[in-house]
Design brief:
Elements: H1 3-6, E1 13-15, H2 20-30, E2 34-38, E3 44-49, H3 50-59, E4 74-75, E5 90-94, E6 100-105, H4 106-130, E7 134-139, E8 144-147, H5 149-155, H6 159-162, H7 175-182, E9 186-192, E10 195-206, E11 209-219, H8 221-246, E12 250-255, E13 260-263, H9 265-270, H10 284-293, E14 297-302, E15 309-318, E16 324-333, H11 337-357, H12 367-380, E17 386-389, H13 396-406, E18 414-418, H14 424-432, H15 450-453, E19 458-462, H16 469-481, E20 483-484, E21 493-494, E22 498-503, H17 507-512, H18 518-524, E23 527-530, H19 540-556, E24 561-562, H20 564-572, H21 578-592, E25 597-598, H22 600-606, H23 626-645, H24 648-655, H25 659-668, E26 673-674, E27 682-683
Parallel strand pairs: 1-2, 4-5, 17-22, 17-23, 18-19, 19-22, 24-25
Antiparallel strand pairs: 2-3, 5-6, 7-8, 7-11, 9-10, 10-11, 12-13, 12-16, 14-15, 15-16, 20-21, 26-27
Helix pairs in contact: 2-3, 12-13, 16-18, 19-21, 20-22, 23-24, 24-25
InterPro entries: AAA+_ATPase, AAA_lid_NorR, CBS_dom, CBS_dom_sf, Homeodomain-like_sf, HTH_TyrR, P-loop_NTPase, PAS
Protein name: HTH-type transcriptional regulatory protein TyrR
Keywords: Aromatic hydrocarbons catabolism, ATP-binding, CBS domain, Coiled coil, DNA-binding, Nucleotide-binding, Transcription, Transcription regulation
């Protein structure tokens, strides 16, 4: 809106020498709120408003000259929002040549400003409601003052339900309250359930005081997914190009007309004189055949340039609908066959190794373990927090090492921390570091904590359940904001760390018992991976035995052979210590074995297994009190049942009693036990 749109388009004027009565009659006759005042030569010298004339008459003034004001002309095409009207009641409006174009009263100016403000308010409201991003504001007391439809959908509420309520009663997280408290805006990415959001929070300041805060947040779950997919596609394309360049064959991708869309350097070397960007004439026939038949075709070709015999294969790329418009052409130089045969043998060896351990020293065959490795590989592809669970000795540290090596951070630090091995009094300084002089005995230069040492890389927090409650809060802040606070420091420090945690204890039960913070558990449990115990993946035992047999044979210069019976005995064993116990048992066999062959008897001896015995009836050797005899038989039955079933629950089923009864009687007879599978107990006492 411009001045021209709201002004009075008039050139009416009065003379500066006119009397005020004459000027009043002129203004009344014209029906105007004011006029231009001119001098004797017709030049504009001021403006006079009707109010000025009336006040002049009341004060006893005589002429227009005594009450007129400076004209302060406004440009006719000036935009309303660019004009400051000032204290005058009337302003002249001039065109580009400086000629009078009209008059503008303050009343007109204020009315136009009010109209423009209402229009802008409606525009802002329309933008607010139409915005794809969620927008929400609160007042200084944390009550919601506005919420747009997008925010309503994300928060699963309505405007009527949300307005006037406390922020924490409607949405999570509550970062806007921190903005109100500190007066500082910030940007944060957070997760609610399976959805990922990014929010920008800013304070609302009036006259230097924080009166509220506004947050703009966006659901980026799909964007994150697409971004990850795009990175995966880029990586695949890069891998394919690398494969093409590394191949000893000439490879080209061409369309139906023979135009090459991609080729490797070997192809260019084989056909240096071919037409630019096209399949050479002798080879185009196999391309057409492959596309017409929609199946691979091959031919022999004698190279005119080198005289070498080439094997040419064309493989059509079948699109949806069964039609093929592109083809991959492979050209193999037979003179390189011996080299290729050697490379093939090497490739077979590598493939065999990869099929067993995927290049990360992981040995497995069991489907349960293959599933774990597949999940770990997916977790490694993104910067997500991983929680490894499983019994002691199952290989949590090895799997963490695998995830690090498979991730984009494989070239950066990998810091391993055993939380259970650090004294509680030193844990905070070890994890987060300290400033010089932070406490008595502190190093003069201060010290970096484990998180700072892992900056840019990965930190592995083993036995995470051992972190005391008062430090769990600080660890939670690190995971949420990627900021650490050294002991004695005045300001936090930003870090970039990928966290992998591990525990052999059920964190859910620790949370229920109040020994582990629920919010920290949920922050760690973004990508949980449960590693099965060795007894649930016994297919891996022969592979593990073979691997460590070779390792210890080289270490001790003492080859050992394990019979099928020995392997069968090891596969029948329960392995409460899992892989760690298996490795230790194999090494003990190498150290103590006097024979070159290990059979099932040796395994039974080293693993303290009881030899099978026939079921004998109860025998009585002497007369004892009946109550003592019953107790002796009961104790022996409990021990035998526990040895056979391995757990109290299964043993109770064998004996036909409740598990609680069996536990009580085992405690009565002093039968020792330790934590383990299912119901949490394994028999440890033997006759």
């Amino acid at each position: 809106m411009t001045i021209e749109d709201i002004m009075w388009k008039t050139t009416a004027a009065v003379w500066e020498s006119d009397s005020l009565e004459q000027a009043a009659r002129t203004l009344a006759k014209q029906g105007m709120a004011g006029a231009i005042a001119c001098d004797s030569e017709g030049e504009m010298v001021g403006v006079v408003a009707a109010e000025d004339v009336l006040f002049g008459l009341v004060q006893g003034r005589k002429t227009v000259r005594e009450v007129m004001r400076p004209p302060q002309p406004l440009p006719v095409h000036a935009r309303l929002e660019e004009v400051a009207f000032g204290g005058s009641l009337l302003r002249a409006v001039v065109d580009e040549s400086g000629r009078l174009a009209g008059l503008l009263t303050k009343e007109q100016y204020l009315a136009a400003q009010a109209k423009a403000s209402r229009l802008r308010l409606k525009q802002l409201e329309a933008m607010f409601n139409a915005a794809h991003n969620g927008i929400l504001s609160i007042d200084a007391k944390g009550r919601i003052t506005s919420i747009n439809p997008a925010a309503e959908r994300m928060a699963r509420t309505t405007k009527e339900e949300a307005l006037g309520r406390l922020l924490t009663d409607v949405v999570v997280p509550s970062g806007l309250l921190e903005v109100v408290r500190t007066g500082k805006g910030h940007t944060e990415k957070y997760r609610v359930g399976k959805r990922v959001y990014i929010t920008n929070r800013s304070p609302i300041i009036d006259e230097g005081k924080v009166v509220g805060a506004v947050g703009v947040f966006q659901d980026i779950s799909e964007i994150e997914f697409i971004s990850n997919e795009l990175e995966t596609v880029k990586r695949i394309v890069n891998e394919l190009q690398t494969v093409m360049e590394a191949s000893s064959d000439g490879i080209a991708i061409a369309d139906r007309n023979g135009a090459i869309t991609r080729q490797n350097q070997k192809w260019a070397a084989l056909f240096p004189d071919a037409g630019q960007g096209r399949i050479p004439a002798p080879l185009d026939q196999v391309v057409r055949q492959a596309l017409d038949r929609c199946q691979p075709c091959s031919m022999l070709h004698q190279g005119a340039e080198t005289g070498n015999t080439l094997i040419v294969s064309a493989v059509p790329i079948i699109e949806e609908g069964g039609r093929g418009d592109r083809v991959v052409v492979y050209v193999k130089d037979m003179t390189e066959m011996e080299q290729l045969r050697a490379e093939l043998e090497e490739t077979k060896r590598l493939l065999h190794t990869l099929s067993r351990q995927e290049g990360a020293d992981l040995i497995y065959r069991a489907p349960a373990m293959a599933h774990v490795i597949a999940i770990a590989r997916q977790a490694a592809a993104v910067d997500v927090t991983v929680l490894l669970t499983g019994e002691s000795g199952v290989g949590k540290e090895e799997l963490a090492n695998f995830i690090w090596k498979q991730s984009a951070r494989s070239g950066r630090p990998f810091v391993k921390v055993n939380c259970g091995a650090i004294p509680e009094t030193l844990m905070e300084s070890e994890l987060f570091g300290y400033e010089p002089g932070a406490f008595t005995g502190a190093a003069k230069k201060g010290k970096k904590g484990y998180f700072e040492q892992a900056d840019g890389g990965t930190i592995f927090l083993d036995e995470i359940s051992e972190i005391p409650l008062h430090l769990q809060v600080k660890l939670l802040r690190v995971l949420q904001s990627m900021e650490i606070m050294r002991l004695g420091a005045e300001a936090p420090k930003r870090i970039d760390v990928r966290v992998i945690a591990a525990t052999n204890k059920p964190l859910e039960e620790l949370v229920a018992a109040g020994r582990f913070r629920a919010d920290l558990f949920y922050r760690l449990n973004v990508m949980p991976i449960a590693i099965p115990p060795l007894r649930d993946r016994k297919e891996d035992i022969p592979l593990l035995v073979d691997h460590y047999r070779k390792r210890f044979a080289e270490k001790y210069q003492k080859p050992l052979v394990f019979t099928d019976g020995a392997l069968a005995a090891m596969m029948d064993y329960h392995w409460p210590g899992n892989v760690r116990e298996l490795v230790n048992a194999i090494e003990r066999m190498f150290v103590t074995s006097a024979a070159p062959v290990v059979d099932e008897d040796h395994v039974a001896k080293w693993l303290h297994l009881e030899p099978p015995t026939a079921a004998d009836p109860v025998s009585v050797s002497e007369v004892v009190p009946l109550k003592q005899a019953v107790a002796d038989v009961e104790r022996q039955l409990i021990i035998k049942a526990l040895h056979k079933a391995k757990t109290y629950r299964r043993a109770a089923k064998l004996l036909g009693v409740d598990a609680s009864t069996l536990v009580r009687k085992a405690q009565k007879y002093g039968i020792q036990s330790w934590g383990g599978e299912e119901d949490g107990f394994h028999a440890a006492s033997r006759d």
